[in-house]
């Protein structure tokens, strides 16, 4: 009998009021059912938002360092449960155990980082134009925050949102992805066990219907979303109409540039990890390899040889390098893009097919795939495939490489391999992306640095770093006049 899981609303575990559920399955062995989760309705969302509203006054009044103490304890619990959560995450969404341990570690780092920032949450003071007047800014929570997340970092990405939101005194309604509900629940469980009061964090499972109800709910003051650019655009439109604050972190089509002077051993390691780690299902995946013509043939040849050695399998097995795609729709999408690449005239030099070796038939495994002779306007060079498919483009100069790198609608991360500092700095300045790596692949984030993208990847906000606290707080400007008389700004200080 598969386990039946519930929502967590106002301190109580509850089934969906509609009685509907959805199945959570292991993508490495699709016949393995993990459990049934509630398919939440607008009524469930409403209950969760009301619980968050009820809990808000006491939570925002609690001194921030005391809120931080609970977050720090949650970090301790995540650390104690790291392997257990990582095992469950691998079973649910497929990436290998060493990667899911990293996912949990990112949440631990974020918990400690957010906890430490509760002792700062700076406003500032500045001199007044007028005598005997004191000026300052303070930060206040935004209110109830709706958190909607993708499945591929099912603990790390929600933690980027939930920890800073709570640190700032907001209450939260969290809707994890329907492809990774169990991992999201384990994160919530750690926060509850750390002592969060009822209603401060509410968990509602479900699909687009639940997400849309959360976005539309008038009691939700801000939405923090991570997912595809298509869904993000829709959410951004609704939030605009409702005058609701929203942070959107969306898709990527990230380039890795290799110049003629690069250390090719380093390049190979970096590209293998960047393109095929998490089966290419990262927003920051290296999906375009832009090679200087002087190193093109050597890199392609060595890359194909190395990628052939990668072992596909269940991520909970010791020797697995690459896990499965997340679900049947993802497999179909990757297959479609391979056909499209061939039709567009790109040349397939590796993979291009589902892997059905013994032991893999019941999962959605896809062989590492490399296309060469890709040109910038091809759809496989323009669109996010979200699978282990690398498009290789050949260029003859740094300027051309940057132009090609910038020729897509996305702008999350970009990378350049070179030993020439001047060229590296030129790329840092000119690449249109929120993150640039020099001599490292396009992936990897640290909790205390901002993370996010430009163009159609983001809407100007950032996760992580100090910047994240700007999203979860309203700035209030305070003028205190202790002169004992009316002082008129601009009028009593006029110079002419
Ligand atoms: N930039 C980043 O930080 C980042 C990080 C991870 C993943 N991603 C992106 O996420 C995508 C993959 O994740 P996915 O397949 O889960 O994305 P998705 O857009 O399909 O779903 C994301 C979340 O939105 C919800 N949702 C779907 N339709 C909705 C609607 N109409 N209203 C409200 N909520 C709705 C889903 O239930 C899910 O929880 C990729 O594009 C990837 O690049 C971005």
UniProtKB/TrEMBL annotation:
Active site: 249
GO MF entry, a single one: oxidoreductase activity, acting on the aldehyde or oxo group of donors, NAD or NADP as acceptor
Gene3D superfamilies (alphabetical): Aldehyde Dehydrogenase, Chain A, domain 1, Aldehyde Dehydrogenase, Chain A, domain 2
Entry-linked InterPro entries: Ald_DH/histidinol_DH (IPR016161), Ald_DH_C (IPR016163), Ald_DH_CS_CYS (IPR016160), Ald_DH_CS_GLU (IPR029510), Ald_DH_N (IPR016162), Aldehyde_DH_dom (IPR015590)
Keywords recorded for this protein, A-Z: Oxidoreductase
Family in the record: Belongs to the aldehyde dehydrogenase family.
Protein name from the UniProt record: Aldehyde dehydrogenase family protein
Origin organism lineage: Bacteria, Pseudomonadati, Rhodothermota, Rhodothermia, Rhodothermales
């Amino acid at each position: 009998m598969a386990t039946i899981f519930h929502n967590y609303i106002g301190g109580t575990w509850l089934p969906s009021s509609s009685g509907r559920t959805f199945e959570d399955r292991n993508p490495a062995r699709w016949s393995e059912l993990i459990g049934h989760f509630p398919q939440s309705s607008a009524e469930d969302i409403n209950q969760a938002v009301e619980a968050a509203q009820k809990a808000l006054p006491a939570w925002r009044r609690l001194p921030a360092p005391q809120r931080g103490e609970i977050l720090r304890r949650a970090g301790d619990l995540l650390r104690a449960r790291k392997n257990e959560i990582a095992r469950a995450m691998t079973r649910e969404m497929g990436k290998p155990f060493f990667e899911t341990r990293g996912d949990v570690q990112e949440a631990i780092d974020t918990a400690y980082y957010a906890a430490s920032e509760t002792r700062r949450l700076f406003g500032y003071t500045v001199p007044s134009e007028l005598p005997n007047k004191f000026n300052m800014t303070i930060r206040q929570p935004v209110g109830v925050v709706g958190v909607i997340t993708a499945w591929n970092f099912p603990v790390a990405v929600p933690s980027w949102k939930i920890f800073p939101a709570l640190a700032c005194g907001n209450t939260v309604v969290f809707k994890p992805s329907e492809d990774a509900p169990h991992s999201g629940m384990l994160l919530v469980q750690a926060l509850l066990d750390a002592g969060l009061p009822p209603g401060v964090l509410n968990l509602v499972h479900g699909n687009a219907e639940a997400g849309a109800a959360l976005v539309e709910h008038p009691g939700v003051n801000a939405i923090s979303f991570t997912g595809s650019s298509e869904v993000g655009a829709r959410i951004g439109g609704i939030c605009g109409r409702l005058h609701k604050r929203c942070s959107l972190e969306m898709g990527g089509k990230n380039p890795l540039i290799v110049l003629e002077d690069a250390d090719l051993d380093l390049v190979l390691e970096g590209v293998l990890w960047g393109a095929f780690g998490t089966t290419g299902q990262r927003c920051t995946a290296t999906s375009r390899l832009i090679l200087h013509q002087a190193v093109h043939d050597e890199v392609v040849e060595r890359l194909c040889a190395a990628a052939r050695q990668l072992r596909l399998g269940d991520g909970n097995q010791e020797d697995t390098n690459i896990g499965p795609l997340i679900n049947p729709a993802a497999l179909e999408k990757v297959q479609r893009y391979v056909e499209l690449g061939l039709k567009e005239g790109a040349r397939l030099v590796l993979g291009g097919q589902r892997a059905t070796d013994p032991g893999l038939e019941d999962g959605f495994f896809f062989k590492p795939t490399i296309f060469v002779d890709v040109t910038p306007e091809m759809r496989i060079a323009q669109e996010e495939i979200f699978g282990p498919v690398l498009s290789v483009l050949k260029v003859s100069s740094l300027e051309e490489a940057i132009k090609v790198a910038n020729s897509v609608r996305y702008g999350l991360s970009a990378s350049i391999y070179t030993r020439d500092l001047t060229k590296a700095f030129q790329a840092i300045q000119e690449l249109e992306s929120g993150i640039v790596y020099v001599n490292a692949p396009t992936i990897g984030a640290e909790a205390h640095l901002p993370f996010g993208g430009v163009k159609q990847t983001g809407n100007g906000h950032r996760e992580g770093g100090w910047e994240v606290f700007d999203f979860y707080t309203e700035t209030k400007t305070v003028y205190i006049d202790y002169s004992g008389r009316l002082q008129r700004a601009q009028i009593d200080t006029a110079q002419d």
